Amino acid sequence: MYRDTWFEIDLDAIRANVRTIRRISGKKFIAVLKANAYGCGDIRVCRAVVDAGAEMVAVSSLEEALVLRGEGYDGELLILGATKAEDCNKLKDNNITATAYSADWVDAFCAQDCAGLKVHLKVDTGMNRIGFRTVDELRAAKEKLLAAGVSLEGIFTHFACADSSREMTDRQYLKFAEAVQALDYPFRWIHCDNSDASVSFRDPLSNACRVGISLYGISAFRDDLKPALSMYTRIFHVKKVQAGETIGYGATYTATDEEMIATIPIGYADGFVRANQGRKVFAEGALCEVVGRVCMDQTMIRLPVYRPEGTLVEIFGPHIPLEKMAADLQTIPYEIICLISSRVTRIYIENSRKIAEDNPRLSSI
Ligand SMILES: *Cc1c(COP(=O)(O)O)cnc(C)c1O
Predict the structure, then answer these.
(1) Average pLDDT score over residue span 224-235
(2) Is 125 close to ligand 1, i.e. is its CB under 6 Å away?
(3) Residue 213 CB–ligand 1 contact under 6 Å
């Protein structure tokens, strides 16, 4: 790593969080590792969650599923989103489970040689994204798929407001329960809980939870999960400016006094978005304001006390929780970590030691 900007992923914390949530929910554990495990690196997070007891991994697309297979994961693997009928053989050859979400999808797959394909049925209970909306549609799908020799292994729905509205969650759950009962089929996997529902919602029907964000210690309900993620850079230049001088593109910041300005090698091309202007980062004991516009590759911060070149700067982590950064930016932690670009090296901690430094973009140098 030549540039001192990195995203640190604590695999010990992820393991601990899997165990804690499993204990609280009392259900089988499906780890949601879509979008390269929310930017954290799918295969390393995958190994950690499986080691901690996860029985299944879920991703968003066939591409993501095949990447995990290519990286050596050979356990249960579910695609939560849409898969095309013409890719039926890829699913079967790689033992990947697909989601049936509409009558058209079922028709297209049943026109292929889909015997033996593993499928979960998706029920739309109010999210209005994908999924069957009525018991009649579900019954028809079930009959068609079984007649085609599909292995109907699961049924699931997705809550829209697990972090905010118990009433909405209850309403969605009732619709889901009604559908599962009406189908009267021995599904091996019945799942509705995302992270927040996994630790806050009790039901007698589902036997697995689907956990994404709480793998990393982020939860609307629990404070006993371990924060697993942090991001750092290092000051590489410090200068003094005089009152009246401006900083950066557009000259949007003017020094009011003699000020110490440090430059850090992080910018919007790393996912450190321009809206960070005016927020603070943490430079070894001192909160420092981001002054002037965030550039593509560099950002200037005002040091309240002198810090030398090489000083560690926390973007988020123990002193600036990811949740706080997200609130400041009027977004959610998911978006911040998913936007950390491929340019940023991922550093993995295991048994309290750094075990790996991944940056696929640097593989050719
Ligand atoms: C992303 C996703 C999850 C995980 O949600 P978290 O809030 O991160 O736990 C679960 N189920 C589905 C269908 C998803 O798309």
Answers:
(1) 98
(2) no
(3) yes
- For the chain, the average pLDDT equals 97
| Residue 212 Cβ < 6 Å to ligand 1 | yes
pLDDT in tens, 259-297: 999 999 999 999 999 999 999 999 999 999 999 999 999
CA–centroid distance, 322 to ligand 1, in Å, is 18
Residue linked to tokens 């699961």 = 154
Rounded distance between C-alpha atoms, residue 135 and residue 125, angstroms: 11
Ligand 1 center to 266 CA (angstroms):
29
Domains defined along the chain, listed by start: 11-216 (3.20.20.10), 229-360 (2.40.37.10)
56-69: pLDDT as tens digits? 999 999 999 999 99
Kindly report the CA angle at 194 between 182 and 345, in degrees rounded to 5?
Answer: 145
Smallest Cα–Cα separation from 32: which of 207, 212, 217? Answer: 212
Residue 185 has what pLDDT? Answer: 98
In this prediction, residue 1 carries a pLDDT of: 83
Rounded to two decimals, the pTM is: 0.97
